[in-house]
Write a structure and sequence with these properties.
single chain, alpha+beta, 3 domains, five-stranded antiparallel sheet, three-stranded antiparallel sheet, 4 helices, rod-shaped
């Protein structure tokens, strides 16, 4: 086998005046169960495929199956003196390829839902990070694309335990998302309360919020109005300012 000045083996000459075999898939010189791609001048790394995948592709193209040939055509790059194949890297499984994007989406979706539900429960309003759901489903779409392409290349599929993990995390994310959406719609459709003498108020976290007087959480009643908070009577336990008016609150 000849070598050039850089030490890279030269492509072998074949009978009939040609210098190298044509590009295509050929039996892997080191793994007879797989094929390796020859680009016309060298082996291409990370392009192996199982023979079963190659057989299906060849049948669809109308080519004979590998077993139908008594011997490979003369001049394929697996004959003695061909360049040494580039060792392919480790084959990544579909689950490993898809896991980072899928787990990112699940983590973002669960976190956004949990935080949004807590904000609406404790403060009755707040910042709703709807953008988190776009991140979630974009990551899941990317994960699905990775899984499909890797599964097609390797012939592998998710194992039953892996499917169970995907199902549990996916269901948890979707359930929390649905709860968040329902809760948020409830805040938008809730009746608007107007502050007035006789209105009722409840403690919500570090705030006092107006509620229906029939609500069990109502602990204060606005008994009078005042120009300033200090103008409320001594019997008042505090005041709330609404549109420049102070409502003096007395415990129910």
């Amino acid at each position: 086998m000849d070598s050039n000045d850089s030490g890279t083996p030269e492509a072998p000459a074949t009978p009939g005046g040609t210098t190298t075999p044509p590009p295509g898939w050929y039996p892997h010189p080191e793994d007879p169960a797989r094929e390796l791609y020859w680009d016309g001048s060298t082996w291409v790394a990370d392009t192996t495929r199982p023979l079963v995948v190659a057989a299906v592709a060849d049948q669809q193209a109308g080519l004979p199956a590998p077993g139908d040939l008594a011997a490979p055509p003369h001049g394929v790059p697996s004959y003695a003196g061909a360049p040494a194949p580039v060792a392919p890297g480790p084959v990544e499984s579909p689950a490993r390829a898809a896991a980072p994007s899928f787990l990112l989406g699940a983590a973002v979706g669960i976190a956004v839902s949990a935080l949004g539900l807590w904000i609406m429960k404790t403060h009755s309003s707040g910042i709703y990070w709807f953008g988190g759901y776009f991140v979630t489903f974009a990551a899941w779409r990317r994960s699905w694309a990775y899984y499909k392409s890797t599964a097609a290349r390797t012939g592998q599929r998710l194992t039953p335990p892996q499917k169970a993990i995907v199902g549990v995390l996916g269901a948890a994310t979707l359930v929390l998302t649905a709860l968040f959406v329902v809760q948020y719609i409830g805040t938008l459709t809730a009746p608007r309360l107007t502050a007035a003498v006789g209105s009722c108020w409840a403690e919500s976290g570090d705030k006092v919020v107006q509620v229906e007087c029939s609500d069990s959480s109502a602990v204060y009643t606005a008994t009078s109005t005042a120009a300033t908070s200090s103008s409320c009577p001594d019997s008042a336990e505090g005041s709330i300012s609404e549109k420049g008016v102070y409502y003096c609150l007395t415990r129910k």
